[in-house]
Each structure stands twice: as C-alpha cells, then as structure tokens.
C-alpha cells in the first residue's frame, strides 16, 4: 500500500497494524507525528515499511 506524498497528517492509526495481506506499507513524505504504533511491526510477512520523512517520535517497534 503506497500512501506516500499524500499530505497525511497526525497520528498513524493503531488499526494499521491489523491490516491483513499487506506486504509493503509506504507512508513516506507525509506530515505524520507522534509515536509509531507498537503493533505496526507485528506482521510476520511484512517485506517493507517506509516511514521516512515524517515527524515521528519514539522507538521503532520490533
């Protein structure tokens, strides 16, 4: 799922972690803030996750 360069602002919803069947998530070059949801890294089949060029805080979940 590519949502890069969409002027998305605010917090990443925790529901993103429950998406099924997404091998790749791209949220780069937006205005996302706050912490990265803990459950975003829980995907066993996740091949790539791009959160670059946002204003996120905190640690990257395992």
Automatic annotation (TrEMBL):
SUPFAM superfamilies registered for this protein in UniProt: L domain-like
One term under GO cellular component: membrane
Subcellular location: Membrane
Membrane topology designation: Single-pass type I membrane protein
Family matches, as InterPro entries: Leu-rich_rpt, LRR_dom_sf, RLP23-like
Pfam family, one: LRR_1
Keywords assigned: Glycoprotein, Membrane, Receptor, Signal, Transmembrane, Transmembrane helix
Keyword hit for DNA-binding: no
PANTHER family linked to this entry: LRR RECEPTOR-LIKE KINASE, LRR RECEPTOR-LIKE SERINE_THREONINE-PROTEIN KINASE FLS2
Name of this protein: Uncharacterized protein
The species this protein was found in: Gossypium armourianum
């Amino acid at each position: 799922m590519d949502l890069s360069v969409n002027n998305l602002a605010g917090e990443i919803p925790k529901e993103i972690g429950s998406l099924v069947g997404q091998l790749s998530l791209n949220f780069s070059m937006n205005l996302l803030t706050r912490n990265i949801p803990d459950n975003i890294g829980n995907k066993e089949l996740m091949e790539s996750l791009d959160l670059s060029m946002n204003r996120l805080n905190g640690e990257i979940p395992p």
